[in-house]
Model the fold of this input.
Amino acid sequence: MAFRAGLAANSLWGSQQTVEKYLKCILLLNRIPGKRVLHDLRKALNLIRTSDKIFLDLSPRTMNFVERIDEIGRFRYLEVSRVAYGLDIVNLDRAVWELRRYCTLSEAPRLVKLRQGVIAPKYRLDRGYLERVMDDTGDPAHEPLLWNNAFFGRRHRRKISMKTWLKATNAPLYLNPQILGEILKYIHLPDYLIDGYRAHKKPD
Done:
């Protein structure tokens, strides 16, 4: 819905949260300790990759998308500059299609693969929430979920049709790193952002 409305911050945050929840589900189902993952998608992926409990087979497009939203999606308050694309809705749907195959103890969904140039095959998770939404045309989430969705739903879409948008905004601290000291009196910033903006500040 955020992508449809052209809400850049909401689409990035929602995408980051979606991927985070799927990765944490995979960690939990496979009994891989992930207490310190917090909002760090890269850390979650590394824990899964280095474990001998599961092999996560993700396409390069999904990996690129996950890495990008990991860099900027977690920052809701414009702590860093951001750029968002309307067509990332396709990347989000692809990432969900690929990741949720591992959010079950059943092996069958993991055997379903994406192939370049071929419509995404369908799979269903037993008692899955998205399956319930797709089956219930009266569910208020039904239409938004399936809007321009090339990976879920009964339709086999070869293309989607939507207004494309691109929105980019520079962070106030990037434009004015000299305000960092004053900002830190009122809000918390991660240490690595503080170090980065201190390095970015021009000498007095």
About this structure: The longest strand covers residues 82-85. The CA atoms of residues 184 and 194 lie 9 Å apart.
